[in-house]
Design brief:
about 350 residues; alpha/beta; Rossmann fold; two-stranded parallel sheet; 11 strands
């Protein structure tokens, strides 16, 4: 028996899960809707997970065996401590609503920049940024948004998310990085689609105009899987991918899936498009008086009036092997069942 054979036989059989267990990942936004799904998936996949949380964060939804790092995206010293010893960073944290435009940039651009700098200094190998389809803007009914098209965000939120992508591209240096841009996300713990579910449960389907805008969506658990596969990908650094459930939808189809899950037959309530801007102004004004952010702003309304919000995730599928677990009907049924279990409805 030669020396090479002896060495080969003495080496332990190391599984992929063992390797992942030796890799520590820092997850931001871990107590939010998408972050909750991502934390659960990373632990199930065998990663050594550290979650960035605030002192005031509700960590009850996080898996038990995760490490907590107290800090914030605006506190650089806390980020230096959080990334220490990490193989990868999955940056899911950010804000989708803000009272002032600058707040979007303080978190989605400047906070991202702080985290990138800390990660580079700590020698982090891989960085995945969860961006948004809003960073590239709407599509057309005839053509899905492609990964290589020039971005054209139409809202302050979208522009701030694009700014976050840009600081990653400029500041990553030798660190491997990628961006995942999800469309609207639904699933357990979500409050945005929950509003639609509540109305359908009361017997009403609300639409703005004809409500025929094609859109892409994705279940939160599928997005968590897509982002994890993205950071693991054997692919050159710098990829920017969309992630969807593999189909285009519209509002009637979406609300129909909710009706089916609830076993309801709701009636349509149509809001004329010419009324909507006035309603949005009233909501914005009322929210400002309360010191809150508006659920329906004029910019959000502008998003809803676009011809289409669809995107092509085939590049992600080819690069990572991603496949969705939930189609719209199954995903909405699982989500509605969760709402009932939690007594949200």
């Amino acid at each position: 028996m030669n020396d090479d054979s002896e060495i080969s036989q003495s080496q332990p059989d190391i599984s992929e899960k063992d390797i992942r267990g030796e890799r520590k990942i820092l997850l931001t936004g871990s107590t939010g809707f998408v972050g909750t799904h991502t934390a659960q998936h990373l632990v199930e996949r065998g990663y050594n997970l550290r979650c960035l949380v605030r002192n005031t964060s509700d960590t009850s939804r996080l898996p038990r065996n995760v490490e907590l790092a107290t800090g914030s995206l605006s506190n650089y010293e806390s980020l230096k401590r959080a990334v220490k010893g990490c193989w990868g960073v999955m940056h899911v944290g950010g804000i989708v609503r803000a009272q002032q435009v600058r707040d979007f940039y303080l978190v989605n651009r400047d906070g991202t920049s702080n985290l990138i700098t800390a990660a580079c200094e700590a020698g982090v190998e891989r960085f995945m940024l969860c961006s948004s389809i809003a960073a590239v803007g709407p599509s057309t009914p005839a053509r899905q948004r492609q990964t290589d098209e020039r971005p054209n965000p139409i809202t302050d939120y979208g522009r701030s998310k694009l700014a976050g992508e840009e600081v990653l591209q400029k500041g990553a240096g030798e660190m491997w990085w990628c961006v995942v841009r999800p469309p609207p996300v639904y699933g357990p713990w979500d409050v945005a689609f929950y509003t639609l579910v509540k109305w359908v449960n009361r017997g009403f389907k609300i639409r703005l105009g004809e409500g025929k805008m094609p859109l892409s969506i994705i279940h939160g658990a599928d997005l968590a899987r897509a982002m994890t596969l993205a950071i693991e990908a054997d692919h050159p650094s710098g990829a920017k991918w969309f992630a969807t459930d593999g189909a285009d939808h519209d509002l009637p189809e979406l609300l129909g899936a909710i009706e089916s899950a609830l076993d309801k037959n709701a009636r349509w309530i149509t809001i004329p498009e010419w009324i909507a801007p006035g309603v949005a102004r009233i909501i914005e004004f009322t929210a400002k008086l309360r010191g809150d952010t508006a659920l329906l702003s004029r910019q959000k309304l502008d998003e809803m009036l676009q011809p289409a919000w669809t995107c092509d995730d085939e590049p992600l599928r080819k690069a990572t092997g991603y496949r969705e677990m939930f189609n719209l009907e199954d995903g909405m049924r699982q989500t509605v069942e969760w709402y009932f279990e939690q007594r949200w409805i």
